[in-house]
Amino acid sequence: MKSASPDEVDRAAAAAAAAFYPYSRSEPALRARFLRAIAQGIEGLGDALLECAARETALPQARLAGERARTCMQLRLFAGIAESNSWIDAQVDHADPSRQPQPKPQLRSRLVALGPVVVFGASNFPLAFSVAGGDTASALAVGCPVIVKAHPAHPETSALVGGVVSKAAAACALPAGVFSLLFDTGFDVGMALVRHPQIMAGAFTGSRTGGLALWRAAQARPVPIPFFAEMSSVNPVFVFPGASMAYADTIAAGLHASITGSVGQLCTKPGLIFVLKDAATEHWIDTLAALVSRGAPGTMLTASIHSACQRGLAERTAIDGVTLLAQAALPPGTAGAGAALMAVEVDTFLRISALQEEIFGPTSLIVYCSAPRDYLRCARSLEGQLTATVWAGPDELRGEDELLWVLEQRAGRLVFNGFPTGVDVGTATVHGDSRFTSVGTRALARFVRPVAFQGEAP
Amino acid sequence: MKSASPDEVDRAAAAAAAAFYPYSRSEPALRARFLRAIAQGIEGLGDALLECAARETALPQARLAGERARTCMQLRLFAGIAESNSWIDAQVDHADPSRQPQPKPQLRSRLVALGPVVVFGASNFPLAFSVAGGDTASALAVGCPVIVKAHPAHPETSALVGGVVSKAAAACALPAGVFSLLFDTGFDVGMALVRHPQIMAGAFTGSRTGGLALWRAAQARPVPIPFFAEMSSVNPVFVFPGASMAYADTIAAGLHASITGSVGQLCTKPGLIFVLKDAATEHWIDTLAALVSRGAPGTMLTASIHSACQRGLAERTAIDGVTLLAQAALPPGTAGAGAALMAVEVDTFLRISALQEEIFGPTSLIVYCSAPRDYLRCARSLEGQLTATVWAGPDELRGEDELLWVLEQRAGRLVFNGFPTGVDVGTATVHGDSRFTSVGTRALARFVRPVAFQGEAP
Lengths: 458, 458
Description:
The structure is a homodimer. By secondary structure, chain A is α/β, with parallel strands linked by helices.
């Protein structure tokens, strides 16, 4: 697809700004109808959409079918929220004309839409975090026009879905500016959108480098705007000895699936596994290592993601103290990526901060600790994370409240005796490492602001 | 008071960080007791507090008594919120073990405290926006330790209230680090606190220069933190002809009180008044001008605020097209500030952006428009505001929805047929120009983040 020109960026921003007034004042039922029409339109694309996405991303069609179901479910979830209008969080403080020394006026307040939002499609979810993904659905639900900057890794999939959204807007007689889709093989269009005075917020899922550059541009504007960036996460897992005893096979098989699913290209892939050295733990690590060695390689989303993964793995294993426990064999001449399991001692982990960096791909690092109190030290050393997972036997977390509290400070989601991949979308979902979530119904909180009304309009 | 040394800053931050775990895990009832003990302690200081504050700020004791009542009301309001624990906004998505292709886990979520918060006392509210003001109350309610950087304009008042807070913490057997008070005559201490790795958020009310410098420092940290700055606002007022006819005297007297109350040193003082040129409007403007001319001068909070006000007024009236309609006469040798009312034509207003800058003091600018559609142009030209006020006669706003919508985009509070000064503190209060309020129960939203829990801790 041709990259958008500066003029096209301006036109999309002007159209979004012009659409903001009527769209933010539109009936809740109309926005709901719009979102449902998008979901229906996506389903109406049938297998052609899945085939296109599979061709562009190398993701299996079964996974893409699941992602499509999630995408449409999200759209309908937000349609329900738009329709109920409950998100406006209406509050009233009643008047008291007899109050002294001054009468008390009536004060009502509600949340309102923030304005045109730029959404950045992510490479690893061509449907659920892309053109009509959760960011777009939550922004449209509350009355914000959306401009999507398509991810260059799946332009045709983006164009197919973009066509559906525009058609749904037209069918609902909404101004065309409620939704625009722009393409770019580089960074200029995204940067121009974030800097555009008509844009009031940004939502991004992707690499730390890209996300930080856009975040900085958003903050450097004459009037800064919120820029919500979901970037890297290493999703630490802490395994207590009782769990190693009780759930060895479950842990080994589950971690393997969680590390290698979607060729490790999930933001919630477990990249750090903290364990104690005991026989039960060594047993499931052996099992996990065997699964990793035997696993089939997969094709990654793009050549540059593949080479970044290979480079990350080479750099990681070159660090003194890091050992390669297992690696999937690659048939000669294969361009795919095979899983890798590494290990390191806790002191080395705490000394070398590079070991906390995400490798986007099917790799993970075991961190051998001497005692559970090492878990607290390691947890304290962590940056913000999308998830943190704890495996423990019955009553084994008694006395570990401070560790759980530290993980609460670091992570948006704490998983008990489960695996971090597979994000369920609902009211309680938190997918973020700071004050906001990009997934679930709370995601709309990013695109609203409160306004109070004092007295009654005459 | 002696400025805090870098070592004292470090100690306060370390104490706050150490207090964060126990305090954020403390019983809701204990935090409520703490907040109520602070309110009771402030009341227990009696007239000595009001006398001290009056001496330091030149504000009349009656106004300070009202501010004390508001401060204690806020503390008790947040005590009630802490006690009810309703702010955690608990959500549950129930498990569905039979779901295909994967079982659905139970997901619960809630809001948790963000961490140690630095609060900057404001010069113009020595009690309600200072040591134990709304920022401190809302942060303490949700379990965030607080470090207050006292405003240098009222150090003794700050020390008196700080003593009360520390005594209340001790009485509740809370770690001393839940609250610290630091002094500084310059900017180093505040800057060091905002940059300190243990500080997780900042709250500020004051000048644009100071607020922006601190905001930039917060964003430039290796891990940026939210910094909530309430800075300048010119609080536009739009008067429709029907209101000029029906409410001439009310408007003149009310605007005069709103412009000159607290010597114009309120962030919600109306600084821009948009009117149409008709006989009824000229009538109340004459009345307002007469009130301004006859008004007594007042002493401003500090010498530097006084000289900034005088300078602002001189610069404003030097602008070609700005006329001085009325100014309070100052007896010779008086150092006080007298009110001033200026006027300008709409085209000049739209051309010169400096006319939108706040003059912190008892001045306001009438903007003469030719037709109601000028109101829409002017509203669109405005920056973010704490308030926007509309005066209109019955049915006069029919057809003005777009103006009201534009004002909704620009302001945190829309006032109908009222005056912007006098902020009522409650559930519906919005005091802010962006996505957050620093006043009212929603103020706590600044200091929390959501966390999800998947599965049950074994």
